[in-house]
Amino acid sequence: MLISEAERIIKDTYERRDKKRGIPLTVLHLVEEVGELARSLRKNDRDQIARELADVFAWLLSVAYLLEIDLEREFVKYYGNGCPKCGSIPCKCPPLEG
Ligand SMILES: [Zn+2]
Questions:
Q1: CA within 20 to 30 Å of 82's CA: 37, 75, 90, 94, which one?
Q2: Residue 84 C-alpha to ligand 1 middle, in angstroms?
């Protein structure tokens, strides 16, 4: 499934509710889901981790279409040729701290 196809499903399912809620509260839901993902990682519950990842992706798609941003196009633009900083696949940037 392409990102645009996933976005179509989420948009068809939730667009009315997402528009009524608005961008700031939808971003808040996305952040909450990221928190739930972190908690599921602490518990090391693989099924729950997978579910939370799907939830994060779904909320991310909602934020993208509320902002009228084509996430698939932007992803290809920034990551289509590998690391946007060093331009390599795999990335050759120095490791991040922490
Ligand atoms: Zn890099």
A1: 37
A2: 7
CA 53 to centroid of ligand 1, rounded, Å? 24
- Enumerate domains of the chain plus CATH numbers: 3-79 (1.10.287.1080)
Q: What proportion of the chain, given as a percentage, has pLDDT over 70?
A: 99
Going from the Cα of 73 to the center of ligand 1, the distance in angstroms, rounded, reads 20
Q: Which of 60, 61, 62, 33 is nearest to 49 (CA)?
A: 33
Reported as a pLDDT band with limits 50, 70 and 90, residue 98 is low
- Residue type at position 62: S
Distance 72 CA to ligand 1 centre (A): 20
Q: For the whole model, what pTM was predicted? A: 0.90
